[in-house]
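Q: Convert this sequence to structure tokens.
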Amino acid sequence: RTRLFLMDRLQTSVAVTRFPGRYIQGPHACGVIPRLAEELQVHKPAVICDAFVAANILPNHLAPVLTSLQPLYLTFGGEVTHEEVARLVAAGKHEKCDMIIGIGGGKTVDVSRAVAFESGRLPVIAISTLASTDAPCSARVVFYTPDGRFESYRDLPSNPTAVIMDTEILIKAPVRFLVAGIGDALSTWFEAESCAKVHAPNCTGFRSGMSAVHLARCCYDSLFEYGEEAVLSAKRGVITPAFEHIVETNTLLSGIGFESCGLAAAHAIHNGLSEFHCTHSFQHGEKVNIGTLASLFLTNKPKAEIDKVYRFCKAVGLPITLAQLGFADPLPPDTIRMIGQHTCVTGSTIYNEDPAISPAAVSAAVAMADEYGKKILAEH
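A:
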């Protein structure tokens, strides 16, 4: 009992901030991998990627720099399930691999971190081919069911050994993915602010430190400073300072911000929306963005701020209505009600907004966010 009391005291008095071991970004950044392997004294990496990355990105960007390491190449099945992690762990152990390199989107990076941990806490290099989420920098793995529904979070003991964002790869990705990353990053400050107000713990179980809160705010400011220009750069396929800034914002600032400040309404509502099959073809950040917009009404933000956020989302191409996520329009009342119920499950981060929050309050905020989005879309 004394130990539990002391731990409760520590969780409210001690701040914990998590970082990746190294963050490496720029054109041709994958070229540093042999040096990293030498510094880490590893000899046989397992490279995990999906079939698309294996055919279109590995040959030109990764395979040439890994030749001396003779890696084992493993194909990721596409969904982060416990069964998929076990399959990849077994394959790596059979070949005595001593490092994991994950290259791909958010799910590939997640599964690679889980495989590294389950293989005996091996070093892991996360190489994201998309600037679409803040997953690469974090220790959090999101597990799904085989049919793509959210199942659970798992927080690993350590963050990736290194994160590599090769902007020569990223600039070739469809613009939609960069925009989705902006949607994910936009939630970071609002959720950090909410968690700070109610002293909710961050993803480590402790309180947020000053540096993490400032980085979350920097994330928000950077989006509004460089977001539109970065999207234009991506559309033209040119690497500009704004593009580099937003890649770092989507990945590093948002990654540290969410993990070390905490999650709240935006990601909870994302999980509620993900229960509906019509959303499964949409990106994580696209769904999170609807959660962020709903949180503006749930937390009674000033109208000027609401307008600023909506107009920014419209300008960069983020969804601002439920119809843009595949829902019927007009939306049946039962659907809105069910979104609230799916959001307010036991253990949901929605309670980092207010421990007494109700499904009805969430449903009302989602309905209002949808209606306001229609109003903004109708403007010329």
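The CA atoms of residues 233 and 240 lie 7 Å apart.
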